[in-house]
Amino acid sequence: MIPKQTVNMTDVARRSGVSIASVSRALRGGPGVSPATRERILSAARELSYVVSPEASRLSGGPTGRLGVIVPRIDAWFYSTILAGIADELDTLGVDLVLCTLPDAAARHRFFEALPLRRKVDAAVVVSLPLSAREHTRLERLGVPTVFVGGHRTGDHRPWVGIDDERAARQAVGHLLTIGHTDIAMIQAADDADIPWATDQARIRGFHRQLADAGVTDPTVVTVKWSIDGGSRGMEMLLSQDRLPTAVFCHSDEIALGALRTLRRAGISVPQHISVIGVDDHPAADISDLTTVAQPVRAQGRLAARAVLDSLGTDERPETAPPVTTLATRLVVRGSTAPPR
């Protein structure tokens, strides 16, 4: 891990009156810095007791000085927050981010056929993107350290950072059971590609296993797209049935927010007539008074960036499995859940 220090490269740049990039070049002995400027930077670093971490130096001093980040999309809170976490770790190191978005099958095909990041980055982070066996093989041809974020599959020992999605679902359903609900429906997210999304599958397992442990069988389940509009449609589907459940577990807060919108428009009070719970702790969850299971999204981005830095410059293959880092989730009780009436 990168040693924690109170002084960073920004402080050295401010003290010496130069850019962060100049500080990075000077401290690693790179070109493009005059002797006088280099000495001023080194003097500022000594005064501030600043030491460059060896891992950061490897990345900023690598052949490209760039980190590739591969995501399905950036117009969603989860992905943009992961990116912010990665930037938290790298923004003072003189390292550039190269972003690749793969929003559809055509983009995926082009990326994995052409591998546009090859010889253009020193390391890569793949964010919550399910890959086929062939895509994994193609990705390995980048020939750089790679860390994955989100959507972990049991038995996959590639370097990974994320949460236990099954446990998060169990926490959500467990809360509903604890306050007295047994008629609990689920609005689950549909996989939008031929490859199943591990996050979806894990949350489905958690829902059914938690209910089964409580002796609850045959729950109502509807499947929608992972979006606010999808959640709204899912609640419409539940309202169209003969009997309304007393509580609904939604695969994500975005789905839950859509469900709440439909209930509000239908004049159905939450939680007086129905309880709703999500997963993630989206920024809008607090505004909407949504009970949820929070996950530390930004921290996942930071830890993934650190894991990439840790792996740089290591030629030896570890005898044990690469690290799998699982962060804790926590129940956040707000006003959208209450005992059934």
Automatic annotation (TrEMBL):
Q: Which InterPro entries match?
A: HTH_LacI (IPR000843), LacI/GalR-like_sensor (IPR046335), Lambda_DNA-bd_dom_sf (IPR010982), Peripla_BP_I (IPR028082)
Annotated Gene Ontology MF terms? DNA-binding transcription factor activity; transcription cis-regulatory region binding
Output the Gene3D superfamilies linked to this UniProt entry. 3.40.50.2300, lambda repressor-like DNA-binding domains (1.10.260.40)
Assigned keywords, A-Z: DNA-binding, Transcription, Transcription regulation
Fetch the SUPFAM superfamilies from UniProt. Answer: lambda repressor-like DNA-binding domains (SSF47413), Periplasmic binding protein-like I (SSF53822)
Its domain of life? Answer: Bacteria
Annotated ranges, domain HTH lacI-type: 7-61
* SMART domains assigned to the protein according to its UniProt record, in alphabetical order: HTH_LACI (SM00354)
Task: Tell me what this protein is called.
Answer: Periplasmic binding protein/LacI transcriptional regulator
Q: Which organism is it from?
A: Mycolicibacterium vaccae ATCC 25954
Lineage runs:
Bacteria, Bacillati, Actinomycetota, Actinomycetes, Mycobacteriales
